Every structure is written in structure tokens, then in C-alpha cells.
Amino acid sequence: MKLTYEVIRLDLRHTWTIARGSSDYKQNVIVRLEQDGVVGYGEAAPNTRYDETPESTVALIEQAIPLFAGADPWHFVELERAIRELQPAQTAAKAGLDMALMDWVTKTLEVPLYRYLGLDPAMTPMTTYTIGIDTPDVIAEKVREAAPYPRLKIKLGSDRDEEIVAAVRSVTDKPLLVDANEGWRDKHQALERIRWLEGQGTFAIEQPMPADRLEDMAWLRERVKVPLLADESVRTAADIPRLAEAFDGINIKLMKAGGLQEALRMIGMARALGLKVMLGCMVETSLAVSAAAALSPLAELADLDGNLLIKDDPFTGVTVDQGRLVLSGDPGLGAQPRK
Ligand code: MG
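That is the input. Now the predicted structure with magnesium ion docked in place:
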């Protein structure tokens, strides 16, 4: 198999601010895997939270080129295991490689990935649309722009939480998913914020406290009603068992998991432990978002809006109708390079 890649720049519609920092653009890496006249595409969205840059992503992909050169793509389970063993972790790069592999396999079989997995495309969940941290005026404007989305996700976790919620609530009474991105450092402060948010139409809260504070999270969970979801606390299936007491559900992202095959293992493990499953994403094109959306009939919550945050999406794929994810029906991951 011939493996090539390209670093692409994605300009954002709005400056993107969360508890960790701000950015105006994102650099992702598109992976291209070719054999027998069929091209599989994958995407890596490196995240500095996980020690990933475009350069470190490319370095891991370079390591994989000889692996793919001699491999049989139909042994994709074995090949994915070999990719996982490459060091350092660099799960975004591995996600791009596994996506390209599964795109090639299902395109060659001429079936959409969801069909290959036995999933009903009518069972996709609603996706939230994310409003980043901003001034009250800009937040109110973004909430108005988000009119087609019945559920919003808002980013909190700074000392501006109250003004942000007030700005959102000045425009809409839509149900909110709150993402604190590890921003509440003290369990008593977190408890106070969560109880307040329960009175503000919040249906779930993502990662209230720093990733390793599982005892504090278990303490919080005993004291609140709203479901608490792990994001930064969980990357791969091996992380899940120790989260079962601390959280009600997990946010699975292909970029953290290292691909579709690991994401499927995570969904199985989360279900076995009675945890809710949410599918999320980074800032990504419609390629990676379509790949995650293909698994979404297995999830009750989705935040698959990364492609909606960029200006010139180089791929087409999954769309959203009144908040619900609509899978394209094309063979493979369901995404195509934009002509
Ligand atoms: Mg999150």
C-alpha cells in the first residue's frame, strides 16, 4: 500500500477560545492510502493537550510508511495493532492511519462504514453545536447563528462562567451541554457551579475538574443529579474501568482513541460498565467528522460539529438536519474530497 500525507491549514470561522487558550486556525494532516486503484482517506487533528503538533504527527506517520508498504490491508485488525505499538503515543496520527485503512476496506467492499458495522443510519443522535468562550455580545450573536441546532454546547471553566451563561440565556432557552475543560480546580467550587447549572437547563457536564482528580469527581457525582461526562480523563479503552465510579459517561473522540477500531472497543467497554457514550471531535474537516458520525448510531450523545467551525471545508460528508446527524450513504467513511 502506498501511504502519503499532506499538512493542511484550516481557517476558523471565529477565534476559538476554551479554558486552555485561543486560536484562529488549525493545522491537520490528511492521510492518503492507495492500493488496487482505491484511495482511502484519513485525518489527524493534533492537539497540544496531548503533546501533539503537526510535526510530531507527521513523524509518526513517517514511521508507519514501511509498515503499510508490506502489509495486506485485509488484515486490518493486525495492522491496527502494529500501528498502536508505534511510539510515542501520537493518537491523532494513528487515528488518521486507521481511518484511511477502514475507508479503503469499506470503499473496496463498496459499503458505507455504518453498514459494514451493522448500524442503522436512522439511529443517529442529535449533535450539539459548540459556542466557544467570548464576550457576551459575540456569544449572543453566535447563539443566534446557531438557530438550526436544538441543543448547544457551551465552554465554561473560567471566572466568566456567570456572564457567559447569562449571555446565552438572554437569547435562548435551548438545553445546554456544559464543557468546563478541567477548568474548576476545587471540588467545592465545582459543586457550587454544577448545582447552579442544574437550575439553568443543563443536560450534562463535561470534564468539570482536572483529568486525574477521580476521587473528587466521585465525590461530586454523589452530590449532583446532572450526568457528568469524562473527556480529558479518558483517551483509550484502558482508561475506562477506573472512571466507572467517577463519571456517568465518556466522550469518545477518534483523535484520542487512535482510530475507529479502538473507538469501537471503547464503546463496548463503556456499555459493559453502564456508562453513557458520547462521540466528540476536535476541530476537523468533514472527513474525520463523517468517520465519527458513522459510529454515532451506537451513541446517545454527539458533539460532532468540528467541521462547522472551519471556513473552507476540503471534504463533504455528514450533514445536520434540525440537529440530527445525516450520514451520506457513500461507500467508506462517507466523505469525499471537495472538487
Ligand atoms: Mg470536551
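The first strand starts at residue 2 and ends at 18.
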